[in-house]
Amino acid sequence: MPISHFLSTKDLSDAGLQAILRDARMFVSELGFRHDRTEALEGRNVVLVFFEPSTRTRLSFETAAHRLGASTVVFNVTGSSLEKGESVEETIATIDAMRFDAMIMRHSHEGAIAKLAKLVHMPVVNAGEGISSHPTQALLDASTLLERLGTLQGARVCVVGDVRHSRVARSQVDVFRRLGATIGVCAPQALQPDTNDVDFHDCEHFTSIDEALKWSTIVSLLRIQRERINGIDLPDLPTYRSQFAMTADRALQHNEQTIIHPGPVNLGVEIDEEVLSMKHSLIHRQVTHGVAVRMAVLQHILTQHPSIIVN
Ligand code: CP
């Protein structure tokens, strides 16, 4: 039987998408987690291979695995034989030979995870890749919004900030549209997606957050991803804030909006600190749903029929 990797939200059938969201909701409750620990993955070993920094995704995948009774091993680039000249391919083949049950991978280059997944004999889950995709982030965003709003049918979601370099935005567009939302984008010229970027075809476009706020019901904020930006002229900070930031004043004026952000946040740039604790901001709740969604993904990948994943 072929191995079912989970590399993109587009790998999920509609039934698979609904099943992950339904199961995530079973794991999460208002105060924390319904099942602090289950033994569904007892005896399984999950390896986390992150070629790029992470706080939320790495810790939540580890926590998710532990809450399901699995053990985890974390591969750290620093201190590994990559520093002695070993290739990434040989590193992955070496980890594969240790026979884990699943590999969670983050990589900074588009296409790298699919290429490396071909070298291993276990399911690989994309934990964020280049500017192309971050499937579990989009699922946790949807899970958080569905908990608050009940449905995304008819919702108008505007993605505001560095859309051009965002793997999160690309995955969100797919998931949110499939759940019935209409998508808008709002970014400075230099951070707008290319006109030939098919992921953003048929999106509404806005040139300021004030315009976007009049149209949207949900605002998905993004930080400027400086680690992926080369040779682009960005607006200076005061200009950026005046046109694209969720300042405390704007958030107070638009308290009917629902605000999400995948994190990490750059306070005082795309968002003010006060906004984080406002009732219509779901930013910390997203982190809680991150664990629940990753529990659901791991459980499906490791114990359930692979037809839930279409690839
Ligand atoms: N949202 C997200 O992927 O955060 P980390 O980089 O901290 O994992």
Percent of residues in beta strands:
5-15%
Question: Number of DSSP strands?
Answer: 9
Radius of gyration: 19 Å
Distance between the termini: 12 Å
> Which term fits the overall shape?
globular
What are the segments in which pLDDT stays under 50 over at least 5 consecutive residues?
A: none
Task: Supply the number of helical segments.
Answer: 11
Q: Would you tell me the structural class of the helices and strands?
A: alpha/beta
The arrangement of helices and strands along the chain is HEHEHEHEHEHEEHEHHEHH
* Average residue pLDDT: 94
Helix content: 25-40%
- Going across the biggest sheet, name each strand in turn: 7-6-5-8-9
The kinds of small molecule bound in this structure are: phosphoric acid mono(formamide)ester
How can the largest sheet be summarized? 5 strands, parallel
Molecular structure report:
The protein is built from 11 helices and 9 strands. The protein has helices spanning about 15-25, 55-65, 90-95, 110-115, 135-150, 165-180, 210-215, 235-245, 250-255, 275, 285-305, and strands at about 45-50, 70-75, 100-105, 125-130, 155-160, 180-185, 205, 220, 260. It binds phosphoric acid mono(formamide)ester (CP). Phosphoric acid mono(formamide)ester (CP) binds next to helix 2.
